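User: Run a structure prediction on this.
Assistant: Running it now.
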Amino acid sequence: MFDRDRWREIFEAISKNKLRTFLSGFTVALGILIFTVLLGLGNGLLNSFLSSFVDDAQNIIFIQSGTTSKAYKGFQENRIIQFENEDLEFVKDNNKGKVEYITPRIYLNLNAKYREESGNYTIRAVNPDHQYLEKTIMMNGRYINEEDVKERTKNVVIGRLVEKDLFKRKKAIGKMLDINGINFKIIGVFQDSGGDNEERMIYMPYKTVQLLYGNNKNIDAINLSYNMSMNTEQAITFSKKLEDDLKKKLKVAPNDQSAIRVRSFAEDIKETMVILGGIYAIIFIVGIGTLISGVVGIGNIMTFSVKERTKELGIRKALGASPRSIIGMVLQESVLITSVAGYIGLVLGIVALKLIGNNLEDYFIVNPQVETGIIFGATMVLIFFGLLAGYIPARRAARIKPIVALRDE
């Protein structure tokens, strides 16, 4: 393998067939390049999908109310469905062991003021479980607890950017915040990986909001997480059960799609994985096709190389060269071309993905990249098939009879 004379002969053979060698190597490099870029773009789509879940639990189910589209059991269509506290308890009590965390949500948009600074912010009225569903990270202080909900305290938790907007460089913990003319005590400051909008939220105990802003028991939505022991299909079935149970309780037609909407991340994951599976299948078909064309190119260049060196190989055999040494020389040339071209294609592919970066976010491609191990493995497979492609002409060369070779013109 490290015979200096053999390597010199290999490079001489390559130099005599520069164009064919370049075209074969180009095909191999292009195959690895295309495979790398396509796989990276596919991973970028996957990253975009996963980023939408970054600030929420991945086993979450959203339950929202709407307006009926069908008359049912004496009720007219266009009836507004309004969830109440008892609906929250109904879901919780009827699914013990299946529900991990559960919280109501009430949405308001109110003006918050501290001294001379003020701004309009989204208010979310929730219970303590919401922290785990939203993956809220406390920077200072604490989150809303059960005592806050039970006693209807005027305590609030504000986002990092709310503190920055209203308190500038001062700490907000313990300060009083004027929200639409009512003073609330700030008990915590949180951060959220969901982005600026999430960090401009203010959380309140939901029963406090019900008391102060309507004196009712209404809630806008119910969020919950299912037991992680469920697989995707079981989670989807569970979501359907929740929808059916609430429709029965609130006297909604079973086939009414607008009155109660239940959305599970499990369904989103399943649908997206089917789409991504199709995309990856196309990537591998296209990638393998280009790699095969590279292998065929290597086989062709080795066939031409052997044909042009027929007389030389005959002389080698006449001087005592073994078939094994001739096969080794031809295969070594094949592996050299495949390895160098494959490495160039790999480097170019990685550079191309780095240049693309996050410039395709508008097309839902985020941070396209590939694991080096996967591409290295693909390159090794290509080298292996390059060996096979070179073996056929190598074997043919080893079988050349010296007398026949010396007569070759």
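DSSP finds 13 helices and twelve strands in the chain.
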